Amino acid sequence: MTKTPQDRNISSSFAKGLSVLAVFDAETPSLTLAEIARRTGQDRATARRGALTLVQAGYLRQDGRMLSLTPRVLALAGGFLQANQFGRRVQPVLNQHARALDVGITLCILDQDRVLVLAQSTVDQGPVTHGFTAGSHIPLVHTSLGRMLLAGLPLEELESTLARVPIPRHTELSLTDPMEIGEQINLARSQGWSLTDSEFEPGILGLAVPVSAPGRTPIVVGASLPRGQSPQKDSESLLRGLQVCAGDLRQSRAVESL
Questions:
Q1: Is residue 194 packed enough to be buried (19+ CB in 10 Å), middle (13-18) or exposed (0-12)?
Q2: What is the arrangement of strands in the sheet containing 60-63, beginning at the earlier edge strand?
Q3: Which of 16, 170, 205, 213 has most Cβ atoms within 10 angstroms of its Cβ?
């Protein structure tokens, strides 16, 4: 197959090394070379070269047969956060509204069929905490954040995404029919907000609203709270607060370059 000029400018070895870094997560913080090869789809020799190169560069550490990430990987994320002035223009806005609503607020973007947390503000003794931090991935189709992000995609891209992503059942109320999920996403698009109820965790309501303008890379903010005696009243109050937060983020022009 003839390579295009763009293909000739791409280092496949570098790309394979990056894919090695991407296989580590909260569920599998340590992996063997065989597991890395299986997860990346690389042969054992290729995975070994990539992993040992990353060990030498300081991004992975090796303890016997096990490999894990080192804190140096945070420097990569730190460069992005600093370049986009998250500490000055994003985090203060999230902190302000989190205190006002007394609930943690999360800012997210879509990343290769997953929800990627860009920033998060928590509150002392907040009602819900999943332990997510910047850089965490969270479920796509069963969270309000994921559905609101999907609502920002062109229709053809949304359909292809729903056709290929896994749809696990987190709870008894998790929707598993792609058509039903698509209907909820379309509803979120039309009304400008997404609500999920106990689909990711029993008894938890999730709310999300868009931050980015239509046609731009989808970016959303959201929050969760326990289902109370008057969930409709609680969700309405949270929705108004999130909409104000999203407006402040747009006004600060903090997410335009993302």
A1: buried
A2: 30-31, 66-69, 60-63
A3: 205
Distance CA 237, CA 81 (A): 30
Residues 13-16: contacts with CB within 8 Å, 24+ apart?
Answer: 13/49, 13/50, 16/40, 16/42, 16/46, 16/47, 16/50
Per-residue pLDDT of the chain (258 residues; tens, 9 = 90+): 444 555 666 678 888 888 999 899 878 899 999 999 999 999 999 999 999 999 999 999 999 999 999 999 988 888 888 888 888 899 999 999 999 998 999 999 999 888 999 999 977 765 555 667 888 889 899 999 999 999 999 999 999 999 999 999 999 999 999 999 999 999 999 999 999 999 999 999 999 999 998 888 899 999 998 877 444 557 788 999 999 999 999 988 877 777
Q: DSSP secondary structure string, 45-114?
A: HHHHHHHHHHHHHTSEEEETTEEEE-TTHHHHHHHHHHHTTIIIIIHHHHHHHHHHHTS-EEEEEEETTE
Q: For the chain, list the domains and their CATH numbers.
A: 12-70 (1.10.10.10), 75-251 (3.30.450.40)
Q: How far apart are CA 195 and CA 157, in angstroms?
A: 22
Residues linked to residue 73 through DSSP beta bridges, in sequence order: none
